[in-house]
Each structure stands twice: as C-alpha cells, then as structure tokens.
Amino acid sequence: MCINEKQMSGILRSVEKPGRYTGGEFNQVIKDKQDVRCRFAFVFPDVYEIGMSNLGIRILYHALNSQPDIWCERAYTPWPDMQEKMETYHLPMTAHESGDPLGVFDIVGFTLQYELCYSNVLRTLKLAGIPLYARDRGEEHPIIIGGGPCSYNAEPIADFFDVFSIGEGEEALPEFCRLYIEMKENGTYTREAFLHEIAKHEGFYVPSLYDVTYHEDGTICAFVPKYDDIPTKIKKRIIEDMDKAIFPEKLVMPYIETVHDRVMLEVYRGCIRGCRFCQAGMVYRPIREKSPELLDKQARCLYENSGYDEMSLVSLSISDYSQLETLTTDLLKWTDEEKVTITLPSLRVDSFTESLMEKISSVRTGGLTFAPEAGTQRLRDAINKNVEEEDLLREVNIAFSAGKSSVKLYFMLGLPTEELSDLDGIADLADKVVGAYFKNPNRNRAKGVTVTISVACFIPKPFTPFQWEAQDSLEELEKKQKYLLEKITNRRVKYNYHDARVSRVESVFARGDRRLAPALALACEEGVMFDSWDEYFNYDKWMDIFARTGIDPAFYANRTFGKDEVLPWDIIDCGVTRAYLWRERERAYQNQTTPSCAEHCNGCGANCLGGKNKWCK
Questions:
Q1: Which residues fall within 8 angstroms of residue 453, CB to CB, at 6 or more apart?
Q2: Which of 131, 197, 285, 551 sits between 20 and 30 A of 391, alpha carbons compared?
Q3: Which residues of the chain have pLDDT under 50?
Q4: Chain-centre distance of CA 234, in angstroms?
C-alpha cells in the first residue's frame, strides 16, 4: 500500500511522540548516495529516547561516518502504537536520515545492551522484512551484525545474526565495512565468502562457522570450527590508547526529551576494582584513562556544539579516575561561568572526598547515590566490594554537611553465600544512614532526610567469578524480598525492588545457548516485545513459550555450572582468564577480598590485550 505525505502526517499525529520517527535532527549526517560505497544502518532495539542517549552509538556513528564512502544511519524499535500503524499500512522499517527501508542497506547493526532487548531485535527484523534466521537470508539481504555487552554470550541469538563484533568497535566496524567494499568491488563477494573472510579478522565471531555439540545431560561438549583457517576462540578488540580514540565533536540533537539530555564525557574504560558479580568490570578490562587536558578540551567542544547545560562524567566508577581532582578543577573554571552542571553518576563510597563534595555541591543540587551492594561486611567481602560501613557513614556525613538530604543506596539480593542476616544488614544500614543525618550538626534542618534503597536480584553473568553460580529460585527471591520489606520499619527509608520474574528470564538469556533460538522465534511470532518495560513484560507468557519449545528455564538460571563444564560463552576470549575467575570464586567462599588494580596487579590476564595503561604489569 502506497501512502502520500498527507496520510503519513496523519499517521504521525495519531501516535505517541511522533518525534521518535521523523528524523531531521540537528547534526544528523547526510551524504550523497553517489559517493557512498557501503550503507550501514545502526539499530538500537528499544525506544528512541533510550537509544538517543546511548554513548556507544554516538561514538560508533561518528567512527563510521568519518569514512567518506561509508554512510551510517540510525534506527530505533518503534513503540507498539507505531508498529500497529506500520502493519496496518504496510510501512517498512526505515532509517532516520534517508527514510530508506532497512532492507536496502548493505549492513544492519544492532547494539545489544541488555538481554531483554532480544525480542525487540527480532521484532525489528520482522518489521524490516528481513528473515529472522541467518540461514534463510540470501544475497539480496543485508549482513546482520551485533555488538555490545550481550555479544560476550551471543549464543541465545546466534542463529539470528550473521556475525558479532566482540569488544570495542571504533576501529573494528570501519574495518568490517572496508572488507565488504573491497570484496564487492573486486568481484569476490558472496555472503558466504564474506563471512568466512571476516571470521579470520580479530574480534569477529561468525556463529554459522562453528558447530556446537552437546552431552546427553544437555551441557555443551565442544565448539568446533568448520574451517582450519578461523580461530578456535574469538579475541575481543580494544582501543589501546584512549587519548587517540575517535571522538564525536558533534552530537545528533533530538527534538524530543530523551533519557539523558546531557553531554556524556567518557573519562576512561575498564575498572580497577574486581566486584565478583560485575560483568562490565571484567569484560571492559584493561583500564585505559584519558588525560585531563584532553577531557577538558573535549568537554568544551561538546558543550559548544550542543548547548546542553548538564555534563555527566562517564565511567564504571568515576571516583576511581586517578586524576579526578585535576579534571574537576579544570572543568569548574569554565562550567561555573557557563552555568553547566557537572554530575558524577558512579561514585564509590571509599573514594569520595570532602574536596570532591565541595566541587560538585557548587553545581549540583540533587542527592547522592552509593552502592554498598550488600548489608553486612562479611557479604561485602565475599563479593569483593571492598567497602566498609564506616566508609559509607563517613561519606554520607560529608554529603549531609554540604546540605544534602537525599541519599540512594543500591543493593543486591540473592548473592552467593547470602544469609537472612545479610538482609537484616540492609535495613540496619539504612537506619544508620538516617541516624547519621540527625546526628550531624551541620545538616540542612529545613529538609527531612530521605534514604531510598533499591534492591536488584542477583543474576549470574558470563565472565564473572559468579558465572558458575545458580540464581535463587523465583520463590526464594520473592520470599527474600518480602522478608526485607518486613524488616524496614523506618518511615524515612523508601524501599524499591526489581521484579524477580524479570530477573529470572534475564538470567535464562544471560547464561543460555543456541537452543533458546526457537523460543525467541516463537515469541516474535506471537508478538512479544519490549520485555524491559513493565507494561509489556509477561512472565507467564515466557514460561508458556519455554514449555512449548522444550526449554527448562531452571537448566540455565537455577543450576550451578560445573568447574570444567564448557560454558556457552567459552568461544569468546575477553582477556580475563578462566583460572583467575575461578580463583576469585574460591576466595568469595572464604570471604577473602582481592585488592584493586591500583594497589596490586592480580594477574587477571587482561594485560595480554595491550593498551596504554599504568595498572597491568
């Protein structure tokens, strides 16, 4: 069905937030198709407001478009009301810049930020008219590539992707496109030949070129390459020198409000800590910092080219940046005058200083957020949080003395070795923070204190010391949530907790293998989408789909994996060794901590990846 401009205008007026679909944003990249030799559609498989806030896409969009003959455009999964209109009027899924259907692009890339976006990935492919399964695509279809955190265990969605980019993509994706252009122009390109060739390049995983065999008990026997000239393990790519990393000087400016309407200044990559539950802290190693001089220059550039009045310093743990005092001092020299707010979103309790508090107080009026993760010192030691109660109370007192009256504390429930006394500790710690406020003589007496505790369910993630652990059963998680609710009696403490059912499904996909593909395909067929949104997540629906496709969720979520078992993600080499992870798991059960990289090199293996840093020995 063909529709005219007037009809399209009517459709846009009939849906929520038409600005999600119009394109035409300031600083979007438009190129002459006659000069373009490779067209790349970058898809964020969630709503526009979230995708437009993603720092990774901002960087990779610029990295690809800095190549004169490569044109990278953007697309986002339409909200259900728009999907309904698209199906009614037979409208194809299109890219924002050109308005062309995704099906005409050479390459379609998906960033995989969280497991609950998988249903949106398939939904987007369906809307684009691209076959879901890689095996069903012909020469006329785009190459489908995935990347991002979830690619470190790509097996649940491996059958739907032609290739995955493992690790950091600023150099890898242009290289990918260069090979595509070269093979197209020298006449050697076929889908099969291209995938075979790219599999020889470091950091690219082509699932169809690896056979997976299984034992009778359902565990994996082996990954077997189909060719001798491709690697048995795929080593991740990294940017070795962050001061030389590509940097987007201009941001595509949305016409509607997004989740993070601000400048996001990436300070460094990696993490010097070693929290045993944290996947990002392991897979983003080694630690590589940017110099404060370069960061100040980049911050000015982004501010001048965007007009944003808020700037967030981004890293896994911003207060661990070794030159944070210098950086904040330099930034405040001009951000105060320009009335630009600086936010530090990932503060650690044990590296928060009074000097830092004074600086951010001059530009920030909100509360502070800390993540003790566990309520007792024993459990904090077991998870290697390396934070003590005295640290937290000292830091909240600094905040209270500076006039703050609101504190958020993040915890996890269901952690390995957890006991009910550890849950008691969460309630006790919140009470102590409230008490610290009233004992502080310099508190803001005009306001009452609010302590908000947010409690997530532990999910065993690949490439962590807890990757072998079983998640608590749904019944156990919900019982613990109720228990903690009963323990919190202080009216100044607010208690928020995540839906345990969502965490269980996430755990299935986090530790899943290729046998989950039929369940995902059936879910797509039956309209499942936006699983990370409360209003659309349907736990009973997923349990029904698993049952109909012969999947036992407990096999993935609630089973302790064997020490020598072949794990679904063993095909990937993230740099951190399996021996190090197992050693850390054993230390957890002995309640032993491991020092940070800043104190001592613990031999995790990430130094084999190279990179300009001062931590790896």
A1: 408, 409, 410, 411, 426, 430, 488, 493, 494, 495, 496
A2: 285
A3: 362-363, 365
A4: 20
Residues pairing with 204 in the sheet:
165
Whole-number pLDDT of residue 357:
67
The H-or-E segment that residue 59 falls in is: helix 55-65
Closest alpha carbon to 17 in 57, 50, 43, 48: 48
Distance (Å, whole) CA 606 – CA 491:
46
The first and second tokens of residue 442, run together, are 């310099």
Q: Are residues 259 and 198 in the same domain?
A: no
CB 106 within 8 A of CB 142: yes
Residue type, 413: L
Confirm whether 19 is domain-assigned.
yes
Beta-strand runs (E) in 159-281:
163-165, 204-205, 210-214, 220-225, 234-235, 263-266, 268-269
Give the containing element (helix H, strand E) for 107.
strand 107-111
- 124 and 177 in a single domain? The answer is yes
- Angle between the 354-361 and 324-338 helix axes, to the nearest 10 degrees? 20
CA–CA dist 147, 121 (Å, integer): 12
Final residue before a domain boundary, out of 235, 262, 286: 235
Domain end marker among 182, 212, 235? 235
Interatomic CA distance for residues 233 and 219, integer angstroms: 19
CA torsion angle 253 256 262 265 (round to 10): -50
Q: One-letter amino acid identity for 479? A: K
Alpha carbon distance 280, 260 (integer Å): 20
> Cβ(321)–Cβ(327) under 8 Å?
yes
- Is 47 within the bounds of a domain? yes
Length of the chain: 617
Q: Where are the alpha helices (DSSP H) in 219-323?
A: 280-283, 292-306
pLDDT at 362: 47
Two tokens, residue 319: 């207060």
Domain containing residue 99: 5-166+169-235
The sign one gets for the Cα dihedral 258, 325, 367, 423 is: positive
> What pLDDT score does 600 carry?
87
Which residue, 485, 279, 275, 491, is CA-closest to 371? Answer: 275
Q: Which of 354, 227, 309, 279 is nearest to 112 (CA)?
A: 279
- The pTM (predicted TM-score) of the whole model is 0.96
What angle, rounded to 10 degrees, do the helices at 292-306 and 324-338 form?
Answer: 30
Per-residue pLDDT of 224-245, as tens digits, reads: 999 999 999 999 999 999 999 9
For residue 100, the number of C-alpha atoms closer than 13 Å in the C-beta half-sphere is 17
Same domain, 125 and 201: yes
Quick one: 201 and 289 in the same domain? no
Residue 368 confidence (pLDDT): 77
Distances (CA, A) of 566 to 472, 569, 570, 572: 22, 8, 6, 12
